[in-house]
Amino acid sequence: MIARLAALLLLCIAFTAPAQAQLTAVYTPPEGSPIPFEMRIEIAPNGDVRGTLPGQSLWLLTIAGEGYFISGEGKDAKVMRATDVAAVLGEQMKKMMPDMPPIPDGALEMVLTEGKPVTVRGRTGTGWYMEGNDTAPAMVISSDPALAPLGKALAYQFEISTRMMAQLSFAPTGFMDEMLRVLRTGAPLSVSGLELNTVATAPIPADRFVLPAAPLSREEIRTRLEASNWQLR
After folding, report:
1. Fewest Cβ atoms closer than 10 Å to its Cβ: which of 24, 152, 170, 233?
2. pTM of the full predicted structure?
3. Contact 198, 26 (CB under 8 A)
4. Looking only at Cα atoms, what is the longest distance across the chain?
5. Neighbouring C-alpha atoms within 13 Å toward the C-beta of 102
6. 154: left (phi > 0), else alpha (psi -120 to 50), else beta?
7. Within 10 Å of residue 42's Cβ, how many Cβ atoms?
């Protein structure tokens, strides 16, 4: 369960960006996939971002650069700062694996190579390939200016994720640094098994970027995670 939570932090910990345009993007699995989930990202004009986690019964909100996990809605909502969740997980991992050695430098290095154009759901971008695999791109990145706010949001999200992973007992920064380098080149049309499906620029209600309750303390977060067998929900 701890590893699963760490993966959530790595992929989705804080959707945020210095963007200046309203945009709603929906990522889904490839066409024909039986997996019934989607990742929705809503970007406010000031750069605040609201996002849903694939397969999870909670959502994310970033306000002024700080990310929050939010479970439930209205008066039943529980709010947890992403930094506090990472800190609690780090403490738990150290208790479970006190003698875990650090990952050696270079052990998780990854090189992504720019390749041929790839079309994803009608949008064309640049395919980026892992070393030794020139058939299935690890990511497809678009340089379309209309998608620039989305690109900035996800790149900044990943940058924060990289920094926050350092709070855990392991910090696989080699491949994360390489992914961040590529994410900074544009907006992802395909990443982490998801594809950009729809994009809309309709106005988004301002109340969707407001915390529904005061954040829990770290002790309250620890109690909540322990009671759920370390499942973030």
Report:
1. 233
2. 0.79
3. yes
4. 52
5. 7
6. alpha
7. 23
